Protein backbone atom coordinates (compact mmCIF):
# COMPACT_ATOMS: atom_id res chain seq x y z
CA UNK A 1 0.00 0.00 0.00
CA UNK A 2 1.46 3.35 -1.07
CA UNK A 3 0.50 5.25 2.09
CA UNK A 4 2.03 2.63 4.38
CA UNK A 5 5.32 2.82 2.53
CA UNK A 6 5.24 6.62 2.63
CA UNK A 7 4.54 6.57 6.37
CA UNK A 8 7.58 4.40 6.94
CA UNK A 9 9.76 6.68 4.81
CA UNK A 10 8.59 9.82 6.63
CA UNK A 11 9.09 8.34 10.10
CA UNK A 12 12.54 7.04 9.18
CA UNK A 13 13.50 10.42 7.70
CA UNK A 14 12.56 12.22 10.93
CA UNK A 15 14.64 9.74 12.95
CA UNK A 16 17.65 10.31 10.70
CA UNK A 17 17.23 14.10 10.94
CA UNK A 18 17.22 14.04 14.73
CA UNK A 19 20.46 12.03 14.66
CA UNK A 20 21.96 14.95 12.72
CA UNK A 21 21.21 17.18 15.75
CA UNK A 22 18.10 18.88 14.41
CA UNK A 23 15.95 20.43 17.14
CA UNK A 24 12.79 19.60 15.19
CA UNK A 25 12.19 17.83 11.91
CA UNK A 26 9.30 17.24 9.53
CA UNK A 27 9.15 14.90 6.54
CA UNK A 28 6.37 14.75 3.95
CA UNK A 29 6.84 11.78 1.63
CA UNK A 30 4.81 11.73 -1.55
CA UNK A 31 3.96 9.74 -4.68
CA UNK A 32 2.30 11.13 -7.78
CA UNK A 33 1.19 8.79 -10.56
CA UNK A 34 -0.31 10.68 -13.51
CA UNK A 35 -1.28 10.03 -17.12
CA UNK A 36 -2.39 12.44 -19.81
CA UNK A 37 -3.89 12.09 -23.29
CA UNK A 38 -3.87 15.27 -25.39
CA UNK A 39 -5.74 15.87 -28.62
CA UNK A 40 -5.74 18.64 -31.24
CA UNK A 41 -7.10 18.99 -34.77
CA UNK A 42 -9.58 16.24 -33.83
CA UNK A 43 -6.93 13.60 -33.24
CA UNK A 44 -4.80 12.34 -30.36
CA UNK A 45 -1.27 13.67 -30.66
CA UNK A 46 0.24 12.89 -27.26
CA UNK A 47 -0.06 10.22 -24.60
CA UNK A 48 2.25 10.47 -21.60
CA UNK A 49 2.50 8.95 -18.15
CA UNK A 50 4.80 9.73 -15.26
CA UNK A 51 5.53 8.57 -11.75
CA UNK A 52 7.14 10.85 -9.19
CA UNK A 53 8.07 10.34 -5.58
CA UNK A 54 10.14 12.05 -2.96
CA UNK A 55 10.36 13.73 0.42
CA UNK A 56 9.80 17.37 1.35
CA UNK A 57 12.03 17.98 4.35
CA UNK A 58 12.01 20.71 7.00
CA UNK A 59 14.84 20.99 9.52
CA UNK A 60 14.72 23.36 12.51
CA UNK A 61 17.79 24.36 14.51
CA UNK A 62 17.29 27.18 17.02
CA UNK A 63 14.50 28.77 14.92
CA UNK A 64 16.67 28.51 11.83
CA UNK A 65 14.78 26.59 9.18
CA UNK A 66 16.20 24.61 6.29
CA UNK A 67 13.90 23.13 3.65
CA UNK A 68 14.73 20.83 0.76
CA UNK A 69 12.88 18.37 -1.45
CA UNK A 70 14.48 15.24 -2.83
CA UNK A 71 12.74 13.50 -5.72
CA UNK A 72 13.42 9.95 -4.63
CA UNK A 73 12.45 7.59 -1.83
CA UNK A 74 15.89 5.97 -1.64
CA UNK A 75 17.36 6.15 1.87
CA UNK A 76 20.90 7.05 0.83
CA UNK A 77 19.72 10.08 -1.15
CA UNK A 78 17.43 11.09 1.70
CA UNK A 79 20.37 10.96 4.13
CA UNK A 80 22.37 13.27 1.85
CA UNK A 81 19.44 15.67 1.62
CA UNK A 82 19.09 15.75 5.41
CA UNK A 83 22.72 16.77 5.77
CA UNK A 84 22.27 19.51 3.16
CA UNK A 85 19.12 20.77 4.89
CA UNK A 86 20.98 20.90 8.21
CA UNK A 87 23.70 23.01 6.59
CA UNK A 88 21.08 25.34 5.13
CA UNK A 89 19.38 25.69 8.52
CA UNK A 90 22.65 26.57 10.26
CA UNK A 91 23.40 29.47 7.90
CA UNK A 92 19.81 30.73 7.62
CA UNK A 93 18.80 33.75 9.75
CA UNK A 94 16.49 32.74 12.59
CA UNK A 95 12.77 33.11 11.98
CA UNK A 96 11.62 34.90 15.16
CA UNK A 97 7.97 34.31 14.23
CA UNK A 98 8.38 30.54 14.18
CA UNK A 99 6.64 28.99 17.18
CA UNK A 100 7.34 25.34 16.41
CA UNK A 101 6.10 22.54 14.22
CA UNK A 102 2.48 21.44 14.65
CA UNK A 103 1.56 19.09 17.48
CA UNK A 104 -0.49 15.95 16.80
CA UNK A 105 -4.26 16.28 16.41
CA UNK A 106 -6.92 13.65 15.85
CA UNK A 107 -7.80 13.08 12.22
CA UNK A 108 -9.72 10.56 10.12
CA UNK A 109 -9.47 9.49 6.47
CA UNK A 110 -12.09 10.71 3.98
CA UNK A 111 -14.11 7.83 2.61
CA UNK A 112 -14.36 7.67 -1.17
CA UNK A 113 -11.43 10.00 -1.81
CA UNK A 114 -9.60 7.31 -3.78
CA UNK A 115 -10.93 5.32 -6.71
CA UNK A 116 -8.97 2.31 -7.96
CA UNK A 117 -10.39 2.48 -11.51
CA UNK A 118 -9.12 6.05 -11.85
CA UNK A 119 -5.67 5.18 -10.55
CA UNK A 120 -5.40 2.21 -12.94
CA UNK A 121 -6.99 3.85 -15.99
CA UNK A 122 -5.46 2.54 -19.22
CA UNK A 123 -4.35 4.54 -22.29
CA UNK A 124 -6.94 2.64 -24.35
CA UNK A 125 -9.74 3.77 -22.04
CA UNK A 126 -8.60 7.38 -22.24
CA UNK A 127 -8.38 7.09 -26.03
CA UNK A 128 -11.96 5.79 -26.18
CA UNK A 129 -13.19 8.70 -24.04
CA UNK A 130 -11.35 11.22 -26.24
CA UNK A 131 -12.69 9.55 -29.39
CA UNK A 132 -16.25 9.85 -28.09
CA UNK A 133 -15.73 13.54 -27.37
CA UNK A 134 -14.32 14.24 -30.84
CA UNK A 135 -17.06 12.29 -32.64
CA UNK A 136 -19.81 13.97 -30.61
CA UNK A 137 -18.52 17.46 -31.39
CA UNK A 138 -18.27 16.82 -35.13
CA UNK A 139 -21.74 15.28 -35.22
CA UNK A 140 -23.26 18.56 -34.02
CA UNK A 141 -22.70 20.47 -37.26
CA UNK A 142 -20.65 20.42 -40.49
CA UNK A 143 -19.14 23.77 -39.50
CA UNK A 144 -17.24 22.16 -36.59
CA UNK A 145 -13.67 22.47 -37.76
CA UNK A 146 -11.51 20.99 -35.01
CA UNK A 147 -11.64 19.60 -31.48
CA UNK A 148 -8.83 19.91 -28.95
CA UNK A 149 -8.23 19.30 -25.27
CA UNK A 150 -6.90 16.77 -22.80
CA UNK A 151 -7.98 13.93 -20.53
CA UNK A 152 -5.95 13.11 -17.43
CA UNK A 153 -6.06 10.62 -14.58
CA UNK A 154 -4.02 10.87 -11.38
CA UNK A 155 -3.29 9.13 -8.11
CA UNK A 156 -1.84 11.33 -5.39
CA UNK A 157 -0.59 10.17 -1.98
CA UNK A 158 1.48 11.66 0.83
CA UNK A 159 2.37 10.96 4.45
CA UNK A 160 3.62 13.48 7.01
CA UNK A 161 5.61 12.83 10.19
CA UNK A 162 7.36 15.21 12.55
CA UNK A 163 9.45 15.03 15.68
CA UNK A 164 6.54 16.14 17.88
CA UNK A 165 4.55 13.03 17.05
CA UNK A 166 2.51 13.99 13.99
CA UNK A 167 1.74 10.99 11.77
CA UNK A 168 -0.89 11.47 9.06
CA UNK A 169 -1.53 10.51 5.46
CA UNK A 170 -3.81 11.05 2.48
CA UNK A 171 -4.57 9.32 -0.81
CA UNK A 172 -6.80 10.64 -3.57
CA UNK A 173 -7.61 10.10 -7.23
CA UNK A 174 -8.68 12.59 -9.86
CA UNK A 175 -9.91 12.42 -13.46
CA UNK A 176 -10.29 15.56 -15.58
CA UNK A 177 -11.33 16.25 -19.15
CA UNK A 178 -11.48 19.55 -21.02
CA UNK A 179 -12.26 20.29 -24.62
CA UNK A 180 -12.20 23.30 -26.91
CA UNK A 181 -14.28 23.09 -30.08
CA UNK A 182 -13.51 25.37 -33.05
CA UNK A 183 -16.14 26.07 -35.70
CA UNK A 184 -15.79 28.05 -38.93
CA UNK A 185 -18.35 29.70 -41.16
CA UNK A 186 -17.49 32.01 -44.07
CA UNK A 187 -14.01 32.63 -42.65
CA UNK A 188 -15.26 33.45 -39.15
CA UNK A 189 -14.26 31.18 -36.27
CA UNK A 190 -16.24 30.39 -33.16
CA UNK A 191 -14.93 28.80 -29.97
CA UNK A 192 -16.59 26.78 -27.23
CA UNK A 193 -15.21 25.19 -24.08
CA UNK A 194 -16.33 22.75 -21.40
CA UNK A 195 -14.67 20.65 -18.72
CA UNK A 196 -15.45 18.05 -16.07
CA UNK A 197 -13.55 16.64 -13.08
CA UNK A 198 -14.34 13.74 -10.76
CA UNK A 199 -12.65 11.41 -8.30
CA UNK A 200 -14.06 8.51 -10.33
CA UNK A 201 -13.11 8.14 -13.98
CA UNK A 202 -16.38 6.32 -14.70
CA UNK A 203 -18.25 9.55 -13.90
CA UNK A 204 -16.66 11.38 -16.84
CA UNK A 205 -19.21 12.08 -19.57
CA UNK A 206 -17.30 12.99 -22.76
CA UNK A 207 -20.38 13.26 -24.97
CA UNK A 208 -22.05 15.78 -22.64
CA UNK A 209 -18.87 17.87 -22.36
CA UNK A 210 -18.24 17.84 -26.12
CA UNK A 211 -21.89 18.62 -26.87
CA UNK A 212 -21.82 21.64 -24.57
CA UNK A 213 -18.55 22.96 -26.03
CA UNK A 214 -19.68 22.37 -29.62
CA UNK A 215 -22.97 24.17 -29.09
CA UNK A 216 -21.16 27.27 -27.82
CA UNK A 217 -18.63 27.04 -30.64
CA UNK A 218 -21.27 26.83 -33.37
CA UNK A 219 -23.17 29.73 -31.82
CA UNK A 220 -20.02 31.87 -31.57
CA UNK A 221 -19.21 32.35 -35.26
CA UNK A 222 -19.49 35.85 -36.69
CA UNK A 223 -19.33 37.71 -33.37
CA UNK A 224 -20.09 41.42 -33.17
CA UNK A 225 -18.29 44.03 -31.14
CA UNK A 226 -19.98 45.49 -28.09
CA UNK A 227 -18.92 48.81 -26.59
CA UNK A 228 -17.25 48.71 -23.17
CA UNK A 229 -19.40 49.64 -20.19
CA UNK A 230 -21.30 48.22 -17.24
CA UNK A 231 -23.63 45.35 -18.09
CA UNK A 232 -25.85 42.88 -16.35
CA UNK A 233 -23.81 39.68 -16.49
CA UNK A 234 -24.65 36.01 -16.27
CA UNK A 235 -21.59 33.97 -15.28
CA UNK A 236 -21.38 30.25 -15.91
CA UNK A 237 -19.97 28.12 -13.05
CA UNK A 238 -16.60 28.07 -14.84
CA UNK A 239 -16.37 31.85 -14.64
CA UNK A 240 -17.64 31.94 -11.05
CA UNK A 241 -15.04 29.35 -10.01
CA UNK A 242 -12.25 31.49 -11.45
CA UNK A 243 -13.41 34.51 -9.44
CA UNK A 244 -13.58 32.64 -6.14
CA UNK A 245 -10.22 30.97 -6.73
CA UNK A 246 -8.62 34.39 -7.15
CA UNK A 247 -10.44 35.79 -4.12
CA UNK A 248 -9.06 32.86 -2.16
CA UNK A 249 -5.54 33.71 -3.27
CA UNK A 250 -5.68 37.47 -2.66
CA UNK A 251 -8.17 37.67 0.17
CA UNK A 252 -8.78 34.54 2.22
CA UNK A 253 -5.13 33.54 2.64
CA UNK A 254 -3.35 34.47 5.88
CA UNK A 255 -0.32 35.70 3.92
CA UNK A 256 -1.94 38.77 2.26
CA UNK A 257 -4.15 39.26 5.34
CA UNK A 258 -1.09 39.68 7.56
CA UNK A 259 0.77 41.72 4.95
CA UNK A 260 -2.11 44.20 4.66
CA UNK A 261 -2.88 43.18 1.07
CA UNK A 262 -6.19 41.38 1.66
CA UNK A 263 -9.53 43.11 1.16
CA UNK A 264 -10.85 41.08 4.12
CA UNK A 265 -8.56 42.93 6.53
CA UNK A 266 -10.31 46.23 5.77
CA UNK A 267 -13.88 44.91 5.90
CA UNK A 268 -13.99 42.71 8.99
CA UNK A 269 -17.54 41.79 10.01
CA UNK A 270 -18.94 43.79 7.09
CA UNK A 271 -21.42 42.56 4.53
CA UNK A 272 -19.23 43.05 1.48
CA UNK A 273 -21.19 40.72 -0.81
CA UNK A 274 -24.87 40.08 -1.41
CA UNK A 275 -26.61 38.25 1.46
CA UNK A 276 -27.29 35.35 -0.87
CA UNK A 277 -23.54 34.70 -1.21
CA UNK A 278 -22.19 32.10 1.22
CA UNK A 279 -18.94 30.26 0.53
CA UNK A 280 -16.91 27.80 2.57
CA UNK A 281 -13.70 25.84 2.23
CA UNK A 282 -14.28 22.25 3.31
CA UNK A 283 -12.23 19.24 2.25
CA UNK A 284 -14.85 16.92 3.75
CA UNK A 285 -17.74 18.30 1.75
CA UNK A 286 -18.95 15.71 -0.75
CA UNK A 287 -18.35 18.16 -3.60
CA UNK A 288 -14.65 18.72 -2.81
CA UNK A 289 -12.36 16.92 -5.22
CA UNK A 290 -8.99 17.42 -3.50
CA UNK A 291 -10.38 15.49 -0.55
CA UNK A 292 -7.30 15.30 1.66
CA UNK A 293 -8.07 14.99 5.41
CA UNK A 294 -4.80 16.65 6.43
CA UNK A 295 -2.56 19.33 4.98
CA UNK A 296 1.13 19.29 4.09
CA UNK A 297 2.08 19.57 7.76
CA UNK A 298 -0.19 16.76 8.89
CA UNK A 299 -2.72 19.15 10.43
CA UNK A 300 -6.39 18.12 10.03
CA UNK A 301 -8.16 20.34 7.51
CA UNK A 302 -10.79 22.51 9.16
CA UNK A 303 -13.88 23.84 7.44
CA UNK A 304 -13.62 27.62 7.06
CA UNK A 305 -16.56 29.94 6.38
CA UNK A 306 -15.05 32.26 3.81
CA UNK A 307 -18.24 34.26 3.27
CA UNK A 308 -21.24 33.95 5.60
CA UNK A 309 -24.36 35.51 4.07
CA UNK A 310 -22.19 38.13 2.41
CA UNK A 311 -20.09 38.85 5.52
CA UNK A 312 -16.33 38.38 5.82
CA UNK A 313 -14.49 38.27 9.15
CA UNK A 314 -11.36 37.05 10.90
CA UNK A 315 -12.85 33.57 10.63
CA UNK A 316 -12.63 33.83 6.82
CA UNK A 317 -8.85 33.38 6.83
CA UNK A 318 -6.94 30.17 6.05
CA UNK A 319 -3.76 29.53 8.07
CA UNK A 320 -0.81 27.17 8.11
CA UNK A 321 1.26 26.70 11.28
CA UNK A 322 3.70 29.56 10.54
CA UNK A 323 1.04 32.18 9.77
CA UNK A 324 -1.11 30.91 12.63
CA UNK A 325 1.82 31.42 15.01
CA UNK A 326 2.14 35.07 13.99
CA UNK A 327 -1.20 36.03 15.54
CA UNK A 328 -2.15 35.63 19.17
CA UNK A 329 -4.85 33.02 19.62
CA UNK A 330 -4.60 31.72 16.05
CA UNK A 331 -3.70 28.20 14.97
CA UNK A 332 -3.34 26.42 11.67
CA UNK A 333 -6.64 25.70 9.95
CA UNK A 334 -4.95 22.92 7.97
CA UNK A 335 -4.15 24.95 4.87
CA UNK A 336 -0.47 24.26 4.33
CA UNK A 337 -0.09 22.98 0.79
CA UNK A 338 0.60 19.25 0.42
CA UNK A 339 3.90 18.44 -1.31
CA UNK A 340 1.96 16.97 -4.25
CA UNK A 341 0.29 20.29 -5.16
CA UNK A 342 3.35 22.32 -6.12
CA UNK A 343 1.69 23.06 -9.46
CA UNK A 344 -0.63 25.55 -7.79
CA UNK A 345 2.11 28.16 -7.66
CA UNK A 346 3.16 30.16 -4.63
CA UNK A 347 2.77 27.99 -1.53
CA UNK A 348 0.71 30.31 0.63
CA UNK A 349 -2.10 28.92 2.77
CA UNK A 350 -5.28 29.25 0.74
CA UNK A 351 -8.58 27.49 0.08
CA UNK A 352 -8.54 24.66 -2.47
CA UNK A 353 -11.85 23.07 -1.44
CA UNK A 354 -14.18 25.96 -2.18
CA UNK A 355 -17.91 25.20 -2.08
CA UNK A 356 -20.48 27.95 -2.69
CA UNK A 357 -24.06 27.68 -1.49
CA UNK A 358 -26.54 27.17 -4.36
CA UNK A 359 -29.57 29.33 -5.03
CA UNK A 360 -32.88 28.46 -6.65
CA UNK A 361 -32.53 29.65 -10.25
CA UNK A 362 -31.69 28.00 -13.55
CA UNK A 363 -29.34 29.67 -16.04
CA UNK A 364 -32.28 29.98 -18.43
CA UNK A 365 -34.17 31.98 -15.80
CA UNK A 366 -31.18 34.29 -15.28
CA UNK A 367 -31.06 34.99 -19.00
CA UNK A 368 -34.82 35.53 -19.15
CA UNK A 369 -34.59 38.13 -16.34
CA UNK A 370 -31.82 40.09 -18.11
CA UNK A 371 -32.80 43.19 -20.09
CA UNK A 372 -29.49 43.84 -21.80
CA UNK A 373 -26.40 42.04 -20.67
CA UNK A 374 -23.61 39.57 -21.32
CA UNK A 375 -23.32 35.83 -20.84
CA UNK A 376 -19.78 34.67 -19.97
CA UNK A 377 -18.66 31.06 -20.38
CA UNK A 378 -15.27 31.52 -18.76
CA UNK A 379 -12.44 33.95 -18.02
CA UNK A 380 -8.72 33.69 -18.71
CA UNK A 381 -5.59 35.80 -18.18
CA UNK A 382 -7.10 36.93 -14.90
CA UNK A 383 -4.87 39.00 -12.62
CA UNK A 384 -5.33 41.03 -9.44
CA UNK A 385 -5.04 44.80 -9.92
CA UNK A 386 -5.57 45.94 -6.32
CA UNK A 387 -5.99 43.09 -3.80
CA UNK A 388 -7.05 45.46 -1.02
CA UNK A 389 -10.11 46.39 -3.09
CA UNK A 390 -10.51 42.95 -4.67
CA UNK A 391 -10.06 44.45 -8.14
CA UNK A 392 -9.52 41.81 -10.82
CA UNK A 393 -9.02 42.06 -14.55
CA UNK A 394 -9.24 39.43 -17.24
CA UNK A 395 -10.70 38.42 -20.59
CA UNK A 396 -13.77 36.47 -21.57
CA UNK A 397 -13.23 33.37 -23.70
CA UNK A 398 -14.86 30.50 -25.59
CA UNK A 399 -18.45 31.63 -25.64
CA UNK A 400 -19.42 35.25 -24.91
CA UNK A 401 -22.93 36.29 -25.88
CA UNK A 402 -25.18 39.34 -25.89
CA UNK A 403 -28.48 39.09 -24.02
CA UNK A 404 -31.37 41.37 -24.99
CA UNK A 405 -34.92 41.30 -23.61
CA UNK A 406 -34.39 37.97 -21.91
CA UNK A 407 -32.85 36.15 -24.86
CA UNK A 408 -29.38 35.40 -26.18
CA UNK A 409 -29.34 37.24 -29.49
CA UNK A 410 -25.85 36.44 -30.73
CA UNK A 411 -22.12 36.13 -30.05
CA UNK A 412 -19.90 39.09 -29.22
CA UNK A 413 -16.17 39.62 -29.50
CA UNK A 414 -14.34 38.78 -26.30
CA UNK A 415 -14.12 41.61 -23.78
CA UNK A 416 -11.88 42.65 -20.93
CA UNK A 417 -13.40 43.16 -17.51
CA UNK A 418 -11.78 45.26 -14.79
CA UNK A 419 -13.81 45.63 -11.63
CA UNK A 420 -13.83 45.29 -7.89
CA UNK A 421 -15.47 42.07 -6.80
CA UNK A 422 -16.70 44.03 -3.78
CA UNK A 423 -18.83 45.94 -6.27
CA UNK A 424 -19.66 43.11 -8.67
CA UNK A 425 -20.79 40.69 -5.96
CA UNK A 426 -22.54 43.32 -3.87
CA UNK A 427 -25.78 42.86 -5.80
CA UNK A 428 -26.43 39.32 -6.98
CA UNK A 429 -30.05 39.05 -8.13
CA UNK A 430 -29.93 35.30 -8.83
CA UNK A 431 -27.81 32.26 -7.97
CA UNK A 432 -27.97 28.93 -9.76
CA UNK A 433 -29.49 25.88 -8.12
CA UNK A 434 -27.01 23.47 -9.73
CA UNK A 435 -23.43 23.19 -8.46
CA UNK A 436 -20.67 22.39 -10.96
CA UNK A 437 -17.69 20.51 -9.57
CA UNK A 438 -14.24 21.89 -10.39
CA UNK A 439 -10.82 20.81 -9.16
CA UNK A 440 -10.56 23.56 -6.53
CA UNK A 441 -14.03 25.16 -6.54
CA UNK A 442 -17.57 23.81 -6.72
CA UNK A 443 -19.92 26.67 -7.53
CA UNK A 444 -23.22 27.60 -9.22
CA UNK A 445 -23.89 30.04 -12.03
CA UNK A 446 -24.44 33.61 -10.82
CA UNK A 447 -26.20 36.64 -12.25
CA UNK A 448 -24.56 39.98 -11.42
CA UNK A 449 -26.51 43.21 -11.48
CA UNK A 450 -23.47 44.76 -13.14
CA UNK A 451 -19.90 44.05 -14.17
CA UNK A 452 -17.59 46.66 -15.68
CA UNK A 453 -16.13 45.77 -19.07
CA UNK A 454 -13.26 48.06 -20.02
CA UNK A 455 -12.12 46.87 -23.42
CA UNK A 456 -12.75 44.75 -26.49
CA UNK A 457 -10.31 42.31 -28.07
CA UNK A 458 -9.38 42.41 -31.74
CA UNK A 459 -11.05 39.09 -32.57
Can you walk through the features of this model?
This protein has 459 residues and is an alpha+beta fold. It folds into two domains: 216 residues, PmbA/TldD fold, CATH 3.30.2290; 237 residues, no CATH class. Helices cover 23% and strands 37% of the residues. The protein has ten helices and 20 strands. The strands form four sheets. The protein has a six-stranded antiparallel sheet. A five-stranded mixed beta barrel has the order 7-13-14-16-20. Helix 1 packs across helix 2 and helix 4 packs parallel to helix 5.
Describe how the helices and strands are arranged.
Blueprint (H helix, E strand, L loop, with lengths): L1 H18 L4 E17 L2 E19 L2 E7 L4 H17 L24 H4 L3 H18 L3 E19 L4 E19 L2 E11 L7 H14 L9 E7 L1 H14 L3 H6 L10 E2 L7 E3 L22 E4 L3 E2 L8 H6 L27 E3 L6 H6 L3 E15 L4 E14 L2 E5 L3 E6 H4 L5 E2 L4 E2 L3 E3 L2 E11 L3
Parallel strand pairs: 7-13, 12-19
Antiparallel strand pairs: 1-2, 1-4, 2-3, 4-5, 5-6, 7-20, 8-11, 9-10, 9-12, 13-14, 14-15, 14-16, 16-20, 17-20, 18-19
Helix pairs in contact: 1-2, 4-5
Amino acid sequence: MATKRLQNVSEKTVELALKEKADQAQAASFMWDSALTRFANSQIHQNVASKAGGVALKIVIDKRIGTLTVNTLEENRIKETIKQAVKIAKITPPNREFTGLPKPEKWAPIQGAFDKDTANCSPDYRADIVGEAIDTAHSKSPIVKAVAGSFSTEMLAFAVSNSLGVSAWAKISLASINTTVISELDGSEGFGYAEQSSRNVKDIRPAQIADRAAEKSISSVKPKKLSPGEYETVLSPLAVGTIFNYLGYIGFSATPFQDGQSFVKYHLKEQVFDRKVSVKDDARDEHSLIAVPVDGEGVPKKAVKLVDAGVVSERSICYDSLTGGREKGKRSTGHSFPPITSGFGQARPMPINVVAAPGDAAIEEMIKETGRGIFVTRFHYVNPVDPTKAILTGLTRDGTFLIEKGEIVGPIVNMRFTDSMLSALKRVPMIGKELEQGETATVPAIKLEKLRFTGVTQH
